[in-house]
Amino acid sequence: MANHPAIVSLTILDELGVKANLFANTIVTDATTVANMETFIQEWVTVTDAIIDGQIVRATMKIDLDYSGAKSAPVAGSRVEQTGLFNFEQASSGYKYGIDVPSISNSVIVGGKLNLSDASIANWKNFVVTGLATITFAGRVVNALLALLDALLTFRKKRKQLDARSFEEAT
């Protein structure tokens, strides 16, 4: 049975409307269920609430999982600033929900636009819409994503990270 590092966090609001986060590291085993995580978070909220004056307004748990099958290094010329913004229809909502994919591949761009008939994009879109038996992609208010409506080639600035990585001191 494998152990996976996880972070639990609580967002705490004070009377002035200022929010702060409380983070704690945990270990989650393969046998852990969502119900186990909910119980753990509820207990964490209860014991923490007893020692603070602020209001807990959010509780989350992030688990780092093992994966395989991805590239071993970035493709030459890849830039996370070049993104594909995919807008989906949501169940019970008239609003689009966008998923912004960083470092979108140049191979799926034709004529300055995302090629929605590309097999890789079609596979990605189908996975987002169908998910798995027990996991479904959803919008911010947990409306299931139903269909791809449109897509845009966009650029999101990541200047602080880029500046930090490309800084060179003169000698």
Keywords:
three-stranded antiparallel beta sheet, 2 domains, alpha+beta, 171 residues, 8 strands
Describe the 3D structure.
The strands form three sheets. The protein has a three-stranded antiparallel β-sheet with strand order 2-1-3, with helices on one face. It has three helices and eight strands, in the order ββαβββββαβα. It has two domains: 3-63; 82-158, no CATH class. β4 (82-90) and β5 form a beta hairpin. The protein has helices spanning 34-49, 119-130, 159-166; strands at residues 3-13, 19-29, 55-63, 82-90, 96-101, 109-110, 113-114, 145-155.
Question: If you compute it from the alpha carbons, what radius of gyration comes out, rounded to the nearest whole angstrom?
Answer: 21 Å
Number of DSSP-assigned strands: 8
Number of domains: 2
Could you tell me how far the N terminus lies from the C terminus, measured between alpha carbons in angstroms? Answer: 52 Å
- What is the residue-averaged pLDDT? 91
In which range does the helix fraction lie? 10-25%
Envelope shape: globular
Helix and strand element order: EEHEEEEEHEH
Continuous helix count: 3
Low-pLDDT stretches = none
Which class of secondary structure composition applies to the elements?
alpha+beta
Strand order across the largest sheet: 2-1-3
Report strand %.
35-45%
Main sheet: strands, sense, barrel: 3 strands, antiparallel
